[in-house]
Every structure is written in C-alpha cells, then in structure tokens.
Amino acid sequence: MGKQFxxxxxxxxxxxxxxxxxxxxxxxxxxxxxxxGSTRPQTFAERYLLGLTSPSSTPTPPSHNNNTTKPPTPSTxxxxxxxxxxxxxxxLDGFHxxxxxQLPEGHWACDYGGPSFLLPGLVFAMYVTRTPVxxxxxxxxxxxxxxxxxxxxxxxxxxxxxxxxxxxxxxxVMLRLLGMERxxxxxxxxxxxxxxxxGATGLPQWGKxxxxxxxxxxxxxxxxxPVDLWLLPSWLPFHPSRWWVQCRVVYxxxxxLWSNRCTVPLDDLLAEIREEIYTAPYSTVDFRRHRNTxxxxxxxxxxxxxxxxxxxxxxxxxxxLRPRWLLRMxxxxxxxxxxxxxxxxxxxxxxxxxxxxxxxxxxxxxxxxSERLRRHRERLAVYLWLGPDGMTSGxxxxxxxxDTAFAVQAAVEAGLADDPVVRExxxxxxxxxxxxxxxxxxxxxxxxxxxxxxxxxxxxxGYVVSDCAAEGLKAVLMLQKECGxxxxxxxxxxxxxxxxxxxxxxxxxxxxxxxxxxxSRLLEHLNPAEVFDDIMxxxxxxxxxxxxxxxxxRFRAHLxxxxxxxxxxxxRRAAAFVAARQRPDGAWYGSxxxxxxYATLFAVQAFExxxxxxxxxxxxxxxxxxxxxRQRDDGGWGEHYSSCVEKRYVEHExxxxxxxxxxxxxxxxxxxxxxxxxxxxxxxxxxxxxxSGEWLQEGVEGVFNRTCMIGYPNYKLYFPVMALGAYSRxxxxxxxxxx
Length: 739
Ligand code: LAN
Prior knowledge:
739 residues; mainly alpha; two-stranded antiparallel ribbon; globular; binds lanosterol; lanosterol synthase activity
C-alpha cells in the first residue's frame, strides 16, 4: 500500500446493503432519512462488511455460550486415542459466525474485488452517457484508489500486482473524471508513475478502446474489431460464437464502438487529461503507429505476427472497401445481439466489462433519453461494492450462489446440520438455491443450454456455469436427500440439472466453465488482448470437471435410475481427463484459485469418486507426496499467487488458512493413512481462529486467466469449517474402517 493521503470519507454507518433475489445494492442514507429516524439500524453483516465490528459487538460463539472456554488447543496425539475430535467445536463456532453474515434471502455477500480494469469502465460509461456519479460513490471510489495505490503511485492488474500502464492509466483518468485536480498528490504520483512506464500509448487494446470512447486516444490507433464478424456463418472455425463467452461478450459491444468510431465530444476536462497521460503533446502522437504498442510492464503475450497481418487486411477492408449498407446491416445484427444479452440478464450483462461497453452503445444506438439507457443506469449498482477501504467493482455481480453452495456443503460435511442455529441457516440457504436455479433455456442461438443449472451469482445473471451447477446440485442433494430438508426442488428439476451438465462435457472428457468448447486452440493465435492468456476459447478445467464428476456421483447415489448409462460414461470420461492432467510432480494446476493446493484437492476428490485412494492408486499417492513435501514447520501450507503465473509452486511468506484447509482436505479425501500431518494442519487452522469463531483475511485467494487475482473473502470462513469438521465425520471413519 502506498503513501496515505487525507481524503474525505462518507459516514460508513449510513450505508445499507439491499438485496433482491441476490442482486446487491449499497445505498447511502441521505440527511432526511437519517434525521427522520425511519431507517433500520445496520445489521451485523453490514457492519462486518464495512469493517465496523469490534470484539465487543461480535456475537459470542457457542463454545462461550455453553460456559466452556474455547476448547483446549488440540493435541497432535494419534486420532485413535482421541475419539471425540478436538476440531468439532471450532468447526461449529466457525459456522455460527458465518450464520451472522448470512443475508435474509439466504445467501452470503462479499467483496469480490481485485482486478483493476473493472471500476474505471463503469465510471467511464457514466461519463460518456452523462450519468451523474452520486457524491457518496465519488468519495468512496476515490478513497479506494488512494488506499490501494502502490508505493510508486501506480496500480497493478490486481491488488497485489506491481504497477502497470493498464491499471495506472485507467485509474488516473478515472480519478480526474471524478473531479480530482491534476495537482492532488495522489494524481501527481499516479501520473509520474504512468509516464515513467511510458504513458498511455502502451495501453493494451481494451484500455485503448476506453480512451478512444473518451476522446483521449484515436480510434485509428486501435486494432480493428469489425462488426462484420457477426454476419459470418457460424460454421466458420473462427466465428465469434466459438470463442469463450467472456471474450465474445466483450468483443460484441466493442465491435460496435470501434466500427462506428463512437467518441464523446471533447470538453475542457478531457482536453486537459489529453495533455497529462502521454510523454509527448497529444497533437504530436502518431496513434496509428501505436496499434501494437504494449508496455513491457503489462504484456503477458504479444499480438501474434499472424494477427498483425490479419489486422492490416481487415483495416483496409473496414476503412476503404466495405459498403455503407453492409456496415448498417452488421450494426443491426450486433444491436440485436446486444439487446438479447440485456434482456437475458436484466440489464446486468454477463460481467462489468461488457456491462459498461453496452451502456455506451445504448447511448449511441438509442439516445440519451432512451428507456434502454435508463435501465442500464438502474443496474450499475449491482457491481459496486463498498468495503472498509471504499468502493470498487466486483468481478461479477457477486459470488452469491457459489458461496451459498459451499457454505451448505461445509456445514453438512462437518456434521453440523443438526445444530438448531445451523439448521435455520441451511433452511434459508436452501431457499436461495431454490430461487436461483435456472428453470428454462433461452432462445439465444449462441447460448449454452442452461435448464436446471445454477449460475455463479444470481438468477438475473442467468449464465449457467458447469461447476456452479454441480456445486449447487450437491448442496441441494445434501439438504434434501441427506439432511431431511423438504423437497423444495423436485427430482425432475435435479434431473434437468444433470441433463444440462451432460450436454456440457467436452470431447476430452473435461468440463469448461460456461459452455462446451466450440473452437480450436489455434484461435489463441488471434487473441488480441495483450494482458490475458487463454481467453479465446473454452478449455476443460480440472476443478470444473471434478465438481461435475462428484455431483454426478452423489446424484447417482440418490437417483440411480436417471440416465444411468450416460451418467456412468460421463463420470468415467471425466475421471480419465483429471488423471491425464496430473503433472509429473504429482500435483494439478489450478485455474480459478491459488493454486496447486486448490486443484489438487479437486483432483483427489475425482479419484475418490471412482473409488481410488491412497491405498489403491499410485496417482493419489503421488498427490499426497507432493502436498506433504510442502507442509511447513508450523503445520500449514501457504501458496503465493505467483504459483499461478509461473506454473510452479511458489511459497507464500506465511502459511495461509485457506491453502491449509485445501491441503488437509485433499489428504483426508485421499485417505492418507497417517493422521499426524492432517492434525498438524488442522491445529494451525484452529489456532488461527478468533474468539468470535471467524478467521481473519490473509492473502488473495482466487485467479483467472493465469495472471489476474481476485478475492474470495468467504473462503477463509467456510473452507476451514469444512476441513475441521471433515476430520471426525469423514476422515476418522475412513482410516479406522481400514483397521
Ligand atoms: C469467474 C468467477 C467464477 C469462476 C469459477 C466458478 C470459480 C470457476 O470455477 C469457473 C469460472 C468462473 C465462472 C469465472 C470465469 C471468469 C470470470 C467471470 C471470473 C474469474 C470472475 C471474473 C472473470 C471475468 C472473465 C473478468 C473479465 C475479464 C476478461 C478477461 C473477459
């Protein structure tokens, strides 16, 4: 964190978190609301999320209510001599803490921040569309940037990363648009950092697109994104419908913006900023020459020679040959596809990147007073998250379904479902799972079938994700079939989920994120975004594949009659995929969290679902050996995010509760015969637990596209519970049965 500046803050006690079917909005009470006293007090969850809780205001955990002191620090004596697990009470205390954070609709909220290229887009979209930024947002966004600046004055691709042009230029422009003077020390230091990194000509393509919309860069200096692409027949191997959906939905609105050169008129402020972000006066910059300039601080992969060649042909086509009528036709097509995305996501869009671009397109297509733009304005707040350090944008509109599914699994796997407080919480979570299931398919030709599946966040988002559907299915099966909760979700609806999952399996037996893989890996040569790797197509992932495999196994145990042969075949192929992905060192690489401990936990569960454990599988033994070799003297595991970037295990400076929970769970699922290392890991987790039952925030947990980190703050709460509770419920019986 950089030098601290004195910046105004809002009164954090005035913020309230609203939720409608999981869609969040932080609202700031105005003076009138405060003075007439009609507002409800902040809840514990709100105060916790805003960093306003203190030990005295924190509810006491059951171990205290029972008049017992916190259970004695567990000894590391052999399990057999320790029939009542010393880890059960910490698990219960941990889950009780989670119940205080649950929202009335049954899900959990959290700060899903980290990436730095999301918030600027939303602010830019507001600037271009002349949408006023509420004063409280302005104050809190500025404060956030001040709190998160690096010592050199810049910002990185994600919160823990070193400064890049991408983040520093976008945040700098954002600060200025929010009203910060160029002479403010925060702005001054950011500008110095940006210019030292080479200035805004080194922006990757997505940054260049934004600055062009803002009239701070020239469209001629952005590699072409022709709308015509969307008129091509979909059988073509490079058709956009074959791209990874996250990439496809970004290039849909940006193709419109690029092809129509959409640019906000220059005003005084923009004219000033123009002269602040380049190393030379604006009028002397030859933007055309910078189409492929990417700052060394930012570049993960440079644009391929093939793509540079294609770009030059396409630019010629777009600038000189393409008839106007064709452009109009393509615009219409892209407009239809954009409206379809808006309708299907209740104007949230898939994620904040395409949301912000859509909002700008709505202005240019439909005008400043259009209903479409009004709906977009209304749905900005779902992405904005307020925390102790200010306001930022989440990577999606939240982690609602994902967190809820894992919280349920943690309670059940830890054997806590009979506790009355836990039961009430599970019942609310069950309701959320019920209302969030996707009940129908869409008429969109490019969308993967979703009926019966679950999304990552909310029903409004509406995109099925293979592992979210799988984790949701497991949670419902646990509640309804194993813990006696009512059948809110019928067997037919559970069967729909399985049918949807079966349709998502790839040719290699694995599962991708949102869709089946539709294009060739060769398309990666056409990746124009210099800062992200592997974004062009869906790939199969070990985590997603295992999630589906274990969900199918649990489903089959309860409903063996549903498509028995298809389910068995899918499981067999999925297991083969996971086995094939094991690295020579025995571990698996994690694509969605940090990193080898995460993926190895999943992979080991895939083997377990096929009846293979330490005693019966060489692969599982190698996985255990990999983990054991990395256990630290304090009993924990700690992986640094560089593991993801460098694709080798990189130690964190300290053991991390979340990595430790994953590693011990992997060993337990593997049936590792010696409880000693597991107990040492669990002891570290129990020792780090606070008197309130919670665990404190440590390093960032999640990742995407290998280089961008993203926070999953609830991981530190439910994965420890799951690990602590699994010890006596799942692990001890497993090794004791074996004799
Ligand atoms: C996510 C978040 C959730 C994540 C899991 C469910 C954990 C994973 O197992 C499958 C993939 C998925 C759904 C996922 C995909 C990529 C997302 C949407 C994100 C990491 C959150 C933000 C990110 C998105 C791509 C950000 C925009 C950037 C681009 C490069 C397009």
